[in-house]
Write a structure and sequence with these properties.
single chain, 266 residues, alpha/beta, 4-stranded mixed beta sheet, two-stranded parallel sheet, 6 strands, 46% helix, globular, DUF3025 domain-containing protein
Length: 266
Amino acid sequence: MTKFYSVIDWSRPWLASILPAANQILAQDDWRAALNQAARAQGLQNHCSLSLQFILQEELPEGVAYESHISAAGKVPTRENLHDFFNALVWLSFPLIKRQLNALQAAQIASLGIGKSRGPARDAATIFDENAALLVLENSECGQSILESLRAHHWQEVFVHQRAQFAEVAQVWSFGHALMEKLVQPYKAITAHAWVVWVEADFFSQDHAQQARQLDTQVSAQLQTHSLSTGDYTPLPVLGVPDWWQGQDADFYADASVFRPKRLST
């Protein structure tokens, strides 16, 4: 029988961040049981030290917020769709980051309740959870130059003129599960909220598992000590990441409907 996730092209570079976790699940017939088996094998816990479990959406008690239930019970309501499937794979791939984001979201709900507006801190955490990409940069003059070009929206500079340097001192790791869901059917305008992670040069010589562990530890520590705001992110049109799409010439990056100039402050 065709699975709902059979439409995913796992060869896409933006799925490399969760591919090891996905391979564990795709090899099994029962995807939900496989998720829980993997969670148990990794000893995954929420921020209250409760074992993590992926449950049916119908098991979420009426009137209880999704984030609050994960916090209070360690149970992640997971529907049979791409959005929730990617979310579960991110839990398996970056459990410390997800745990900290859930702690932030649950604390905001406990403090402010659930209303039409999430509030700035919860908004920022939700943006991270749903649409973030980790922009990993070498802590060097070259890495700083790339970040400055990105923040200034100098797209030609960073993706054309600095392309060789980008390959040496930068990586992009997809994190947001809504971002991954959109990229199942990619289109040029998809834009991530990039979260900057500074690393030393030896990071780039490590294997994927070592890199993932470092990012999980380092970013979760950032989130514990930093008050999140929506201004923390840098817009990143993800199909512009070098070698993530075909035809990335100067004309590709000249498309101002996607690679927009920076707005002038008023």
